[in-house]
């Protein structure tokens, strides 16, 4: 049975499997990110009932949005003025919730948890951010890698999303094997002890404070982390470079730029940006040069410093509010 959903999925799979990472990361040099965002706007305005009503209420005629200046004047959407006002199906293309194959739930940190439908095409786009970390930082394209998902599983977005993205990398040919103990420490230790030695590196993916607890608890149990060549993918909380160095020392890491990476994301948009060896190097220099950090960020305490693909997520700033399209 062929449908529009299956055609979109096949197209996304082909693009993901056939396109090298470097090609993806260099696309913005030949394609204007703002024009790509404008094209996405018109596609959404033509197919999503909730957005059509929202634009009408705001007095916006999509036909009048032709260039970058027009796009910049579009009203921003939020949970309050958009997502929470409409039925879930109305927020989907053609008003069809069944056109999405997965629904995740946000943490509810701003109040009530929200449902976020998505398709495999959405996940494959986000997988590029994981691919950049696994390829450029961990060389997982040439090392047998055990990816241990330590994010909470269930309906919450982090664990299932991460597991899916890692499996997609394996389908592309990366020698990655995924296992999902979630935030069950006993199961994590069993997985690491029994399976870790069969691989050239072990990547722990999870919430930074929890991963540190795993490392410290493992040491107390007599686990020697160094032979496992442990790497970390983290999300959910900012941490200092001193913290990164400490965790690295306890796992035998000698090069923090290539053994850990933080990802920046949200439940609705997935992963927006990720640390790279370059961004970590800059951040570590700023950590050692607080005057420069204060001049750049207004305070010596460092935020996460990440890089993004402007064709994957188009960023704008409205005062101190960060807006993104993608």
UniProtKB/TrEMBL annotation:
This is Phenylacetate--CoA ligase. It comes from the Bacteria. PANTHER family: BLR5969 PROTEIN. Keywords: Ligase. One of its GO terms (molecular function) is ligase activity. Coiled coil: none annotated. It comes from Kouleothrix aurantiaca. The lineage of its organism: Bacteria, Bacillati, Chloroflexota, Chloroflexia, Chloroflexales. The keyword Ligase applies.
